[in-house]
Amino acid sequence: MLEISNLVKRYGSDEPVLKGLDLVVEGNTVVSVVGASGAGKSTMLRCINRLVEPTSGSIKLNGRELVNLRGANLRRARRTIGMVFQGFNLIDRLTVMENVLAGRLGYVSLYQALTRKFPQTDIDRAFHLMDRVGIAHYANKRADELSGGERQRVGVVRALMQEPEILLADEPTASLDPKTSEQIMVLLQSLASELSLPVLINIHNVSQARTYTDRIVGLRNGQMIFDGTPGEFNQEALDAIYGGIEAPDETGGEEQQAVETSDT
């Protein structure tokens, strides 16, 4: 279970990006977070995995406070938080298998990491997960030879190799064509159920949020202004979140919106 309480993130003396955010994610729930660029969606995810430091507040994962962790304790906690990135974050010159096994770097010695001598159990698990998402036949192919959808599947498997307690996905479909983006959403939805894994997804595409997630959280100016089921996510909620601006949908509107590269 992820428990966020009164989370605040401020950059310098500017107005806070997150303003006392509260959120609970549990079970194998798939939760989408929607909102206009600058709403704080990516900042929230980066606070959870400590890519950015929260200014104040509490973030607990299965009862363990993450905000105050440092050093080895922080590294151990990060192993339990899988992350799927919009830009894939693969090492292009390495093979698919090598990129996937990078998800085990937090579990092996420095020597094993440098020489890429991973335990056979890790290799077996990598093949199993790659087969599950349909990329096992690319194991020895360089990452830069893959399509966008294939690269994102590599990113998903790399995150799952961490054996995470939660999976975070930051705009995982924004760089993909509509058909491929829907395939990735279906994959995340099914993996949450199969692995009993909570999944928290930042997404611009409101239609996909309605179709593929169990719960929608709406942010505006760093504050939560909606939390409910897709069926409850009506026009009133859309207007409140986007301020009357037409929300992006499956027609490609998400690619016409400013992508949250910094989300500040």
Automatic annotation (TrEMBL):
InterPro entries: AAA+_ATPase, ABC_transporter-like_ATP-bd, ABC_transporter-like_CS, ABC_transpr_PhnC, MetN_ABC_transporter-like, P-loop_NTPase. It comes from the Bacteria. GO terms for molecular function: ABC-type phosphonate transporter activity; ATP binding; ATP hydrolysis activity. Keywords: ATP-binding, Cell inner membrane, Cell membrane, Membrane, Nucleotide-binding, Translocase, Transport. Residues 2-246 form the ABC transporter domain. Coiled coil: none annotated. It is found in: Cell inner membrane. Signal peptide: none annotated. Pfam families: ABC_tran. GO terms for cellular component: plasma membrane. It is a peripheral membrane protein. Its main location: membrane. SUPFAM superfamilies: P-loop containing nucleoside triphosphate hydrolases (SSF52540). NCBIfam families: ABC_phnC. PANTHER family: AMINO ACID IMPORT ATP-BINDING PROTEIN, PHOSPHONATES IMPORT ATP-BINDING PROTEIN PHNC. This is Phosphonate ABC transporter ATP-binding protein. It comes from Marinobacter panjinensis.
